[in-house]
Amino acid sequence: MDVKLKRATYHLWTFAFSKFISSFGNSIYVFAMSLFILTMTGSAMNFAINMICTILPRTILAPIAGYVADHFPKKVIVLSSQVVSFLIVSGLLVYMVTNGLSVLAIYATTVLLTISQMFTGVAFTSSITRLIDEGRIQKATAINQMVVSFSTIGGPIIGGMLFAFSPIQVFLVIFIIAFFLAVCVEATMDFTLYGSERTKEEKKENMWQGMKAGFLFIHQQPIIRSIVGIALVVNFFTGALLIGVPFILVEILQVDARHFGIIEGILAGGALLGGVYFSIKKDVAFPLLNVKHGLLAFSCLMTLFVLPLIVLIPYNGIVIFYSMVMLLIGFSMTYVNTPIGVLLQKRVSDQYKGRVFGILETGATSLMPLSFILYGFIYDLLGPIGTLLPTGIFLLCVTLYMLRKKIILSAHPELNSPKAKTIENSYT
């Protein structure tokens, strides 16, 4: 048992390293290559197309990636997709050296790299309970959140530095080395440490039946259905802030670009702080209560965001105010996302994990463009106050309904116990 725990500890840090390579590398690649396209063509549309190339493949193919993760050895999927990523970037480097770099070559590379990394991500996320002991699932989920947050902060910074100070060839070589290191590390991991790969019954399903079974599993599990629904709702309403932050700060309040960059970075810093918090604290006793509290805080912060538009505040006060609000928003988002991840890891059967996470990713990525379009229209029509205040109130109402007492008790029936309050307070 001691040997198994040591192996799980090794997995915890190799998982963090691999996720770092995947998330951080992808963030650097997309930002640097989009800047390269913008410089090369001078077209904002070409810049936007490259960003779309990172969204559409995930929206369309994530359920397929989930099916593959549930029906084939996860280690083979992870290693194969990382090797494919290595070959894709190497191919771009060879093409650039022999033919020069074209916009179409970048688009093709972005699409293929997005697909390969999506397979890696879904397979890895659905493998957490097989790689790591149950007592550290929250820690692994929190580390995952920390890596994503750090990638959000550092990816554009490093990508911009590489773009400004080094040839594009050097940038691609660094990327190739990173993928090579990831493959070497992942090859040492045991993806069956806490469970077998698949059953004979699972092999008999064809792809369509398997994907349909994934949707049916979510539909038949009220708690899982609620968690997935909450995740999609949060993802959609986050679009109100992603559109509203630059619109309010830059266009309306005329915040200096340097201060705006700091305020945006603090959002990811809050998420990073939340990841650290969950990585060092004991497992939460009632995760769905944490999700509810985090969402209530998030909706209140969203309504609070318009305060400087109503009350006259000095410029320095505006910068400090929005820095604090963004820090709290980032923390509250992690306060929601980490317990959701832990609940899904613990409650979804191993044979369905890939499909559930794939469906979740498809829903999230497909809702974001719709959210951007809708909120872009609403901001122009109603302004920031008329947009954020109703959105915050509506999110508050949706949270209270979707996480009503009946749902909370069905997920945590022990809350009916007289000792439940004491237990809850000791963990939260």
TrEMBL record:
GO terms for cellular component: plasma membrane. It is found in: Cell membrane. The keyword Electron transport does not apply. It is a multi-pass membrane protein. It comes from the Bacteria. Keywords: Cell membrane, Membrane, Transmembrane, Transmembrane helix, Transport. Pfam families: MFS_3. The keyword Mitochondrion does not apply. The chain crosses the membrane at residues 12-38, 44-69, 76-98, 104-125, 146-165, 171-194, 227-249, 261-280, 292-313, 319-344, 356-378, 384-403. This is Major facilitator superfamily-type transporter.
